[in-house]
Task: inverse folding
């Protein structure tokens, strides 16, 4: 509860005098008890009564005044709903929830069916004694988010980012007319990795430092004679582009309406929209098997690199090799019971090769995809971006944690 909720009571109680009476305090407490309850356990509760109370009871006990309260986020709500410490067991199944979790459960709850068997495998390995209660909780979460209206999904930038990510999920996607490589299980795993990689950046921006991120940069090369125009390819997921374009537009309009978007950033927003509109046009042509002109292919070749200008440093800043690197890390869950922190991290991007055959010819295309890690570390010292980069960028990569099994299968040595 914050200033808004307390302000409601003060507004309706116009006759308050100083000093306030005990009856007025009781009235205020009764009013506040009827306000929204906390839906995320964001505190560590210690005491003898913990084992006798349910998580919801302990969670409600954390309610109090916050001058700048934490914002509700759906993924944190999912994690909180699927974990517990020493609280009482679930009354329906008699099982306790595990004290830690995996980001796969968040993607599963939000609708990614590719994550479902991976979640089951994680439970079998890490929390077999919680199988029934987790199944019940996940089913309830899936139903809840499936019924969430679009108005909620687009209510703020955080929800909207997740809404864009969910465009990559298999459920609800009509793949009729899409190329064969987008219909296979491996592509579903690729999309899951992309979803988790983007979600990791979202958590990083909102949980840790809110630093501006930059694209991976490489050294320039002498190109020599101008080669034939390469015939590139845009992954033709129109639902993804539609949601991303909408997100950029509402970001631009919302910031501009509040006087928070100066000319520098307004130009970058416009440039991003122009690029996204172009990518969507190319994707539409690919799905309809319409021939793409050499001029369009040439623009496609330069458009992606031209987007570097959107994330370039501000006029009074200097680009450095360090802040151009894409590796970043976010701690997303604290397991006080085990003394561990759950990390989500992106490493050096991987190349992806896709064989394409359409009216423009048969060709092998090359792009970049996230490299995604999930691992735990001791609670005593949380890793920072600098710690994580020191592990990623040396020639010796032996200190890197192991990739998730499902993600490692996508890597060809």
Result:
């Amino acid at each position: 509860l914050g200033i808004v909720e307390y302000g409601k009571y003060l507004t309706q109680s116009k006759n308050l005098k100083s000093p306030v009476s005990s009856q007025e305090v009781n009235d205020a407490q009764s009013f506040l008890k009827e306000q929204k309850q906390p839906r995320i356990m964001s505190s560590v509760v210690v005491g003898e009564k913990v084992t006798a109370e349910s998580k919801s009871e302990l969670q409600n006990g954390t309610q109090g005044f916050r001058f700048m309260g934490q914002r509700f986020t759906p993924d944190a709500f999912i994690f909180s709903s699927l974990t517990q410490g020493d609280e009482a067991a679930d009354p329906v199944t008699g099982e306790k929830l595990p004290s830690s979790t995996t980001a796969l459960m968040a993607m599963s709850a939000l609708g990614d069916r590719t994550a479902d068997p991976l979640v089951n495998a994680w439970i079998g390995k890490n929390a077999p004694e919680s199988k029934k209660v987790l199944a019940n909780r996940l089913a309830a979460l899936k139903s809840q988010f499936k019924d969430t209206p679009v108005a909620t999904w687009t209510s703020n930038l955080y929800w909207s980012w997740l809404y864009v990510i969910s465009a990559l999920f298999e459920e609800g996607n009509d793949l009729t007319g899409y190329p064969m490589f987008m219909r296979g299980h491996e592509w579903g795993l690729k999309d899951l990795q992309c979803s988790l990689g983007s979600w990791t950046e979202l958590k990083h921006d909102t949980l840790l430092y809110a630093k501006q991120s930059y694209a991976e940069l490489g050294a320039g090369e002498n190109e020599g004679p101008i080669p034939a125009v390469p015939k590139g390819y845009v992954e033709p997921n129109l639902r993804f582009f539609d949601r991303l374009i909408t997100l950029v537009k509402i970001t631009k309009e919302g910031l501009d309406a509040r006087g928070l978007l100066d000319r520098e950033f307004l130009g970058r927003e416009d440039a991003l929209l122009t690029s996204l509109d172009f990518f969507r046009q190319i994707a539409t042509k690919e799905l309809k098997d319409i021939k793409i002109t050499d001029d369009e292919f040439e623009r496609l070749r330069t458009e992606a690199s031209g987007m570097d200008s959107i994330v370039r440093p501000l006029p009074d800043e200097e680009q450095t090799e360090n802040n151009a690197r894409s590796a970043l890390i976010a701690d997303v869950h604290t397991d006080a019971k085990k003394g561990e922190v759950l990390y989500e991290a992106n490493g050096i991007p991987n190349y992806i090769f896709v064989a394409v055959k359409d009216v423009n010819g048969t060709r092998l295309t090359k792009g970049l995809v996230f490299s995604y890690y999930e691992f735990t570390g001791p609670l005593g010292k949380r890793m920072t971006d600098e710690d994580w980069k020191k592990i990623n960028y040396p020639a010796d990569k032996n200190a890197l944690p192991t990739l998730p099994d499902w993600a490692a299968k996508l890597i060809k040595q």
